[in-house]
Design brief:
elongated; 7 helices; alpha/beta; 10% strand
Length: 215
């Protein structure tokens, strides 16, 4: 008798839980339907308001169209300005590269190697400094397309000097104007001085005719 009562109680509780679960599901479904209805109604009212606004406010629509056209024109002008600036920048870079390339082409590969060897020999002989000479020296725009050489001083890496900064580019490079310059000849030293180089200039007195023969 007692077991039948307990079983009946469990069945009632199970039915009650199922009913509560179904009621909760129906409540959620109704809430979702109401949310969708409100969203659709809001969208309908928005479109209706826009349509009525266009009908009732032709002047405002005209003003909006004019403002949109003005914004488009301003954006087009800005795009043209940026394109012109980019073209000017690329042309300046091309001219700088052409100038630096012509400066270095005044020397043969043997003359360039000879200059770097002389710089390294001088640094070791006079200051006991070991310079790292690159296998393929690269022009550095930061130093007027000269080649910077570095050494170790007091366990710190420091700039020893700049080999052959280009005279035509020195005026636009503050760092190149102020750093020690290392060049082949008195003529190159004079060219740097006349271009406004303000730092120490060392030349190695190589014969001028070797350079002139390269023209």
């Amino acid at each position: 008798m007692r077991r039948r009562q307990e079983a009946a109680k469990e069945q009632r509780e199970a039915r009650q839980q199922q009913q509560e679960k179904e009621a909760e599901q129906r409540r959620k479904e109704l809430e979702e339907k109401e949310r969708i209805r409100k969203a659709e109604e809001a969208e309908r009212l928005r479109k209706q308001w826009e349509e009525e606004s266009r009908i009732r406010n032709p002047e405002r629509d005209k003003r909006w169209a004019e403002e949109k056209a003005q914004r488009a024109q301003e954006e087009a002008e800005e795009a043209r300005r940026l394109a012109v600036e980019q073209a000017d920048r690329e042309e300046r870079e091309r001219q700088i590269m052409a100038t630096a390339t012509a400066w270095w082409r005044r020397l043969s590969k043997q003359q360039i190697d000879e200059l770097f060897a002389a710089v390294a020999e001088r640094a070791w002989r006079e200051e006991k400094l070991w310079l790292t000479i690159p296998d393929e020296p690269k022009m550095d725009p930061t130093f007027a397309d000269g080649v910077p050489l570095y050494c170790q001083r007091n366990r710190r890496r420091s700039l020893y000097g700049v080999v052959r900064p280009c005279p035509s580019l020195v005026a636009a490079s503050t760092r190149a104007r102020e750093q020690p310059a290392l060049v082949r000849s008195p003529l190159e030293a004079k060219e740097l001085e006349e271009a406004g180089h303000e730092g120490w200039i060392t030349h190695f007195d190589f014969p001028e005719h070797e350079q002139l023969s390269m023209y």
